[in-house]
Amino acid sequence: LIIAAMAILKPIALQRTLNEVNTGGVYAVILLNQSGSPIAQSILNNESPTASIAAHIWKMISKSGDSFKAGEIDNFVIECDEGKVIVGSVLDYVLCIYAKEHVQSGLLFTKFDVLRDYLRGPLSKVSS
């Protein structure tokens, strides 16, 4: 499925799109399947985000939370000592955007919303 997804998603165009998000303190964007395997990623030099952990957290919360089942929450921000990550769904996929601690959460939500809306079209062709 990953190979089929990449063929349909046009890897070069997808990579360029993810690269565009890495500005203003954002240092990584990772698109994962529900099991935590990366579909595509853009990571700036010397950074090492933990994407599989974010995907696992998303899976656990989305399975158990009433707000998720009702469709009231579609992403969340985790704030850590060294930065922030916004995690949410794009159809059957998990999108993670990592940023330095000084980046405003509002900017992360905006970048997430714009990227999610853009990716919905191509990902709808490969979602189950």
Order of helices and strands: HHEEHHEEEH
Query: Low-confidence parts lasting 5 or more residues at pLDDT below 50?
Result: 1-7
Strand content: 25-35%
- Please report the total strand number as a whole number: 5
Helix/strand class: alpha+beta
The biggest beta sheet reads: 5 strands, antiparallel
Helix run count: 5
Radius of gyration: 14 Å
How far apart are the termini?
Answer: 10 Å
Strand order of the largest sheet: 2-1-5-4-3
* Helical percentage: 40-55%
Average the pLDDT over all residues and give the rounded result: 79
Shape designation: globular
Describe this structure in words.
It contains 5 helices and 5 strands. The chain is of the alpha+beta class and 128 residues long. The model is unreliable at 1-7 (pLDDT under 50).
Question: Concise description?
Answer:
The protein has 128 residues and is of the alpha+beta class.
Defining key terms:
128 residues, alpha+beta, five-stranded antiparallel sheet, 5 helices, 5 strands, globular, disordered N terminus
Helices, strands, pairings?
Blueprint: H1 2-9, H2 11-21, E1 26-33, E2 38-43, H3 51-64, H4 66-69, E3 75-80, E4 83-90, E5 93-99, H5 105-124
